[in-house]
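Sanity check

After download, print the first record. It should look like this:
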Amino acid sequence: MLRSLVGSEMCIRDRYGECLYTGMADRVQYTWEGDGPLGLGIAADVDGIVVESVVDNEVARTVAPGMFVLAVAGHLIEQGQEIDHVIELIRSSKRPLTIEFEERLWYDDDSIHLSDVEHEAGIATNIDLSDAEQSAGSADEGTSVPTAAPRPFARTKVISDFITSTLMTSPMYREKQRQLATVSLMKPLGIGFVAEQNGDISVCAVPGEEAQASKVSPGMILVEVNGELLTKDWKLPDVAAVVKAVPEDHPVQMVFAFNAGSGIPLNKAEEEAKVLEWASIKFNELDLKQTGLLGETDLCTLNDWVWQCYHPGGKPMPPSDRLATQNKLLKLCDKHQGQLDFQTFESWFCKTNRQIAKFRAYQDKREREKQALFNKCGKTFGVPLEEGWWNQNVLGKKMLPPPIKSGVKWIEKRAVKVADLWRTEGDAQCISKLVVGFDENFEIKLDSDAEPGTITGMMLRFLQMLPGGLLPVKSVEQLVHAARNSNMISEAVEALPEFHAELLEALCRHWSNVTRKFKYNGATVQNVSLAVFSALVASPAELQDEMEKEIIMDAILNQRMIPATEIMIQNPDEIFDL
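Expected structure tokens:
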């Protein structure tokens, strides 16, 4: 039964750190009907019992890393509960077994960055339980229990030695993403394997379409097949025997490593220990005077070097995030008279590594939820604001429509000083491609070389395609009547539906930022108002009521909306904060 606690890792750890979560999301339950592996790993965190990994695809549809265990078979799990108690509770409970989980929100800011995470000093200790207690390999023995059954082989996991000098000086290795590729294929696999001279079994050809779709490519190293972790004594017939033992109607689970010469991949605890071993070597190398201490300059060098060589969760850390960790390290250095010994650096690194893992788990969860909501809605353009998938964000943070959010960010970063901004029409074909892109994906990355007119044109297209317009006919009538009266404009804005008011405010604040650079872009309040006011109202063609058509036509043709638009752009604080 204890093998059910984790899949291929079988690693249960104690983790220490201050509570980072700010709220709660929905609770979920998962019921295991029959005997067999649970397919997930748990760890003892200061905040409770947390899911460390999920290796079963079916379970992963409901349970995700970072969730906390609330109850097992109806028994509540209190904060501070010993993990051994939870293990015993799972082992002694009869099937069907229901476990309740809770996702705690580590951050509530939609624009959170790694630099916003406060790293505190503290020692993180990994505790690997014995093979007898957990059906898992101890850290000393380096063993691992596969998830698949039956097991045609019983082999010992062998960790290949890393050549530190080669690993640390190879830019390709540092820059390449080292996250392992997990692939599930039906037989025939459509993959050709070859035994390398160094003992690795790698992909030599991929003729199968299913394998190609799974992005299997020549040069990948086979690490695991159907739960069997490959070692240096494995041969091609061993792999063939494992594949042959899998029933025809069952998929073959395989794990590949991207980088040649990496050997058998390390688990999280082993990888952290290995990188600290490397860091110790680098620390001593930088400690020219052999004082056992490094100053700020050398610590910055060590920090950047370590995070280039070590990829938390298999994902490379971009320069901006490495700089954020450097700033945190320098703050810690200031508290220690400008110098740190290796033990202090080690404690800081372990703590930071775990917080990065939590942060990335939150990011991954948010992306999954956005994708699920987008899939349910189906598209982004031409959808009423109240029905937009972005307004149903289960993370509790309201979002601007993605085309508006991405467009505003792009313009204010790259084009706020461009001449004739918001007054130059973009290429209609490029705008249409962006519309299709946002309708097919919940989020797309705007090309840094795009024309500013294309980006502003896309945003205007979004407003023009809103059913009923951003401003309802009644609001248009009120704003026309208000002219330049701030109090009357504020009353009209306050009467808008919630999502309409939020989007209007965001746009007016953006346009206000643009007009502050009018010396460079020529975008005065009057110019911008003239360029955008007609996109705020509904198209007369979609209105059925003749009276409403006349109101909109009068507002557009006689430009009677411009005075109120100018006031909203010129004084957004006064209009939207009243």
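If your output differs, re-run the checksum step. Summary of this record's structure: Residues 1-25, 106-179, 260-265 have pLDDT under 50 and may be disordered.
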